[in-house]
C-alpha cells in the first residue's frame, strides 16, 4: 500500500474518533482540530522564455542567450519572390548603390531559419548594424569597404565566397547566377559548429529591444497605411489589417510575397531617417549611412508616433541601436515581428501616413 495514502487514512480515523468523543460530551462545544495536510501554497509558474527580437513567448529555452543570425538578402527584381521573406524576426532594409535596396534578416534562433535568399554581398553599414546586435553575419561576397570592416572589427561571418559548402543554388527560376544562392538554418548551424564561432551573446546584448507588457495604442494618431520612399523605384507601403493586427508590405503598389506565396507582414514598422552620402572614391557609387542617430516614425496597432534613434559613430560599430520616444525615453515596442527601414533623410517628406 502507498505509504502516503496509508498515513492519510490513519489520520482521518483518529480525527473521526476524536470528533465522536467530543459530541458525546454533553454541553461542550465541538473543538476544532488541525488536519495533517499542509496548507496549499501558491506556485508562480515559471515565465515562458521570450524571443529577444520580437518579445513573443513561443521561444525555445535552449536558444536563450544565443547570438542572433544576420543574413544579407537581395531585393532586385530578379531576386523576387525571395525564399523565406515572411520568416525573419526582424528585417532591416536600406538603400545601396544605384538606388536599389538590400535587406538584412535577423533570426534569434538558427533552428528557425528555413531556406532563405537569394543571399547577397555585404555592405559596411549592414556589418556595423549586425555588430550592434552581436550577430553572426552571413553574406555571399561583399564590397571592399564591407570586407575591410569585417577584417578590422574581427566580425564573425559566414561568407559564401569562401565557405561555399554552407550555401546552395536554386537555378529553377532562369535568372543570372548571382540571384540563385541560398542557405538554411541547418547549414548555418553546421557552419557555426565547424568554424567554432562563439554562440553565446556578449553581456548587455541579449535584450536589444524593450517590449511593452500590454499592447500599446501609439499617441500620434491613427495609421491604417504608411508609405515610405527609398528611391524612385523602391517604395514601400504597409497596410494595416485590423483583424490580425499586422501591416502587410506592398512594394511599388504590389504585394511583397515570398516564394511560398505569403505576403510579408509585421506587427511593427520603424522608419529611421538617416543621411546617405556616396563613399568617397567608390567607382560603383557605394553608399554610406550616418548611423549616429536621427528621427523617425514608429507604426503599430493601427497607430503611429514620432521617435528618435541612435547608434553611435563609425568609430564605435559595436554600439547598439537605441530606439526612443520624442522625450528621449526608451521606446516601448509592441510584441511581434518588425521591419526597420533606414530611409534617406532627404526623402522624409515623402513619408505619407493615412
Please describe what this structure looks like:
This protein has 354 residues and is of the alpha+beta class. It is built from four helices and 21 strands. Strands 1, 2, 3, 4, 5, 8, 14, 17, 18, 19 and 20 form an eleven-stranded mixed sheet that branches. Strands 9, 10, 11, 12, 13 and 21 form a six-stranded antiparallel sheet that branches.
Structural class of the helix and strand makeup? alpha+beta
Report mean pLDDT, rounded to a whole number.
Answer: 89
Q: Looking at the structure, what is the overall shape?
A: globular
Alpha-carbon distance between the termini?
A: 73 Å
* Extended strand count: 21
The portion of residues assigned to helices is 10-25%
What is the number of helices? 4
Q: Top keywords for this entry?
A:
354 residues, alpha+beta, eleven-stranded mixed beta sheet, six-stranded antiparallel beta sheet, 4 helices, disordered N terminus
Quick gist of this model?
By secondary structure, this protein is α+β, with helices and mostly antiparallel strands. It has helices spanning 3-24, 124-132, 144-152, 185-194; strands at 69-74, 90-95, 101-107, 136-139, 157-159, 168-169, 181-182, 221-222, 225-231, 234-241, 246-251, 254-255, 265-266, 268-274, 276-278, 287-289, 293-300, 303-310, 322-325, 338-344, 352-353.
